[in-house]
Write a structure and sequence with these properties.
This is PZP protein. Residues 2-130 form the Alpha-macroglobulin-like TED domain. There is one protein chain. The chain is mostly helical. It has a domain at 19-65 and 74-119. It is built from five helices and two strands. A two-stranded antiparallel ribbon has the order 1-2. Helix 2 runs antiparallel to helix 3 and helix 2 packs parallel to helix 4 (81-95).
């Protein structure tokens, strides 16, 4: 489709990906994964890995300049929905490698999945910018 081809051309021509916001990079990495543009996908994932928050055996991404979460007893911090969402896009970009993700990517993806699963609410759902907080199903 010419519209999709033109949109991909526009994204590929996007100058200086280093200045892009982490959320934009996550979306673009997944877009290029779906389009089979492996070099672009890998470049964006490499850039994203440098910005990753690696903590407690898990990996996630957060907004630049965000205050660190409180470490209080009996309090379980849940990230804002945009951070869950962008982390999920990075996970999808890792798992959508073509022809298939490498063992290294699968190992890294499991660290991302660990963080995402820790963000579930007591009903099994997630806060989201797109859907309500009701559990799936």
């Amino acid at each position: 489709h010419s519209v999709v081809r033109n949109a991909l051309f526009c994204l590929e021509a996007k100058p200086n990906e280093k200045k892009n916001h982490v959320y934009t990079k996550a979306l673009m990495a997944y877009t290029f994964a779906l389009a089979g543009k492996e070099e672009k996908r890998k470049a964006l994932l490499g850039s994203l890995e440098k910005e990753a928050v690696k903590k407690d055996g898990s990996v996630h991404w957060q907004r630049p300049g965000k205050e660190p979460e409180a470490d209080l007893p009996y309090y379980r911090y849940r990230a804002p929905s945009a951070e869950v969402e962008m982390t999920a896009y990075v996970l999808l970009a890792h798992l959508t490698a073509q022809p298939a993700p490498s063992q290294e990517e699968l190992s890294f993806a499991s660290l991302i999945a660990k963080w995402i699963s820790g963000q579930q609410n007591p009903n099994g759902g997630f806060s989201s910018t797109q859907v309500s907080c009701f559990p799936p199903g």
